[in-house]
Amino acid sequence: MSAHVRPGSRALSRLLEAGLTLWLLATLCFVLLRAAPGGPFDTEKAAPPEVQAALATQYRLDRPLIGQYAAWLGDVARGDLGPSFQYPDYSVNQLIGNALPVSALNGGLALLLALALGIPLGVWAALRAGRWTDRGLMFAAGLGLAIPKFVAAPGLVLLFAVTLQWLPAGGWGEWRNVVLPVVALALPNIAYCARLTRASMLETLSAEYLRAARARGFSPARLLFAHALKPALLPVVAWLAPALINVVSGSVVVEQVFGIPGMGRYFIQGALNRDYTLVLGVVLVVGALIVLINTAVDALRGWMDPRLQDAS
Q1: All residues at 6 or more sequence positions from 62 whose CB lies less than 8 Å from its CB, including other chains
Q2: Which among 292, 283, 249 is positioned nearest to 96, based on CA atoms?
Q3: Of 107, 71, 57, nearest to 262 (Cα)?
Q4: CB count, 10 Å around CB of 127?
Q5: pLDDT band at 160 (very low <50, low <70, confident <90, very high)
Q6: Residue 100: CB partners within 8 Å, gap ≥ 6?
Q7: Within 13 Å, how many C-alpha atoms sit on residue 62's CB side?
Q8: pLDDT above 70: residue 307
Q9: Which residues pair with 91 in a beta bridge?
Q10: Distance CA 286, CA 22 (A)
Q11: 157 with 257: CB under 8 angstroms?
Q12: Do 76 and 26 meet the contact criterion of CB atoms below 8 Å apart?
C-alpha cells in the first residue's frame, strides 16, 4: 500500500518542480540565443565606436556571458524582465503586459469554441456510430486535423475577407477582428475534441454499469447526461492541457497572419531582431502559463475522478 502524501507536501513538490522547469527552460533559451549568429545591434556597425560601446554598456553586453546571465537572472527574480533592445521606449514587462491579454483572449475563445462544438459533435457521432453521418463527421474531423494553421488562416482570409468581404483580413480593436483568428486557432482543436469525445463516449456506453442502468429502464437522456457524460469527458479534460499549449504555440502563426499584437508576434519579431530580453521574457511567461495550465487541469481531473488523487 502506498503511503498517503499530504496535500501540503504535494503542493510544495509541484512548486519546486515548476520552479526548476522554468529555470532550466530560461537557461537553455539564454544559451541558445547567445550561441546564435548575429546580435541585437548589428545594424549599428556603422556607428562610431563610442556609440557601440555605450550601447553594449547600457544593455550589459560588454560583460562576460556568465555575468550577463547572473545579472539577468537577478532581475527576473525581482520581477523585472529587462529593457527591450529593439523597442527602447518600452520595457519587456510593458510589451508583454500589452500583448498577453490579446493572446489570452484569442486563445481562450478558441478553446471555448473547440469545446462548445467538439463535445456535442463527438457525442452526436458516438450515438450514431457506423452511420453515414458518423463517417462524414469523422472524415471532416480528420481533414481539420490535417490542414495546418499556416494554410487554414490564409484560407479563411481569402474566403471571408477577400471573396465574401464579411470580415476584416487583419488588425485589432473591434470584435470583427477577433472572429477569423479565433476560428483559425479553434479548427484543429474542434476536430480533435470531436474525435476524442466520440471514442471515449463509445467506450463508456459499452461499460457494464451502463448496461445495468439501461436494463433498469432508465431513459436514454438520463443514461447520457446522468451516467455516461461525466466519465466520458475525463479524457477530454486530460486533453485540455495539451490543447491550451497547442493554442499558445499556434498563436505564433495566426498572430503573424492577421497582424495581431500578441505574444506570438513579439516572439517572432524578437527572435528575428535578436532581442534577447524580449524573447526570454515571452518564453518565461509562456512557460509559467503552461505550468499553471497543467496544475489546473490536474486539479480538475482530480475533482472529476477522486481515484486520481488517491493514486498520486
Answers
A1: 53, 56
A2: 283
A3: 107
A4: 17
A5: very high
A6: 262, 263, 285
A7: 10
A8: no
A9: 83
A10: 10
A11: yes
A12: yes
d(CA 186, CA 107): 8
Residue 178 CA to its chain's centroid (Å): 17
> Lowest mean pLDDT: which of 26-30, 45-49, 84-88?
45-49
- CA pair distance 202, 24, nearest whole angstrom: 41
The pLDDT > 90 percentage for the chain reads: 30
Burial label for 17, CB within 10 Å (0-12, 13-18, 19+), is: exposed
How would you class 102 by CB atoms within 10 Å of its CB: exposed for 0-12, middle for 13-18, buried for 19 or more? buried
State residue 2's pLDDT score.
Answer: 45
- Spell out the domains of the chain, with CATH numbers in brackets: 99-274 (1.10.3720.10)
How far apart are the C-alpha atoms of 172 and 53, rounded to whole Å? 39
Paired with 272 in beta bridges are: none
Q: What is the DSSP string of the chain?
A: -PPPPPHHHHHHHHHHHHHHHHHHHHHHHHHHHHHSSS-TTGGGTTS-HHHHHHHHHHTTTTS-HHHHHHHHHHHHHTT---B-SS-TTSBHHHHHHHHHHHHHHHHHHHHHHHHHHHHHHHHHHHHTTTSHHHHHHHHHHHHHHHS-HHHHHHHHIIIIIIIS--S-SS-SSSTHHHHHHHHHHHHHHHHHHHHHHHHHHHHHHTSHHHHHHHHTT--HHHIIIIIIHHHHTHHHHHHHHHHHHHHHHHHHHHHHHHT--SHHHHHHHHHHTT-HHHHHHHHHHHHHHHHHHHHHHHHHHHHH-HHHHHH-
- pLDDT tens sequence across 188-238: 999 999 999 999 998 888 887 777 777 777 777 777 777 788 888 888 988
39 to 43, 45, 59, 68, 135: CA distances (angstroms): 9, 10, 12, 14, 53
Q: Which residues contact 7 (CB under 8 A, 6 or more apart)?
A: none
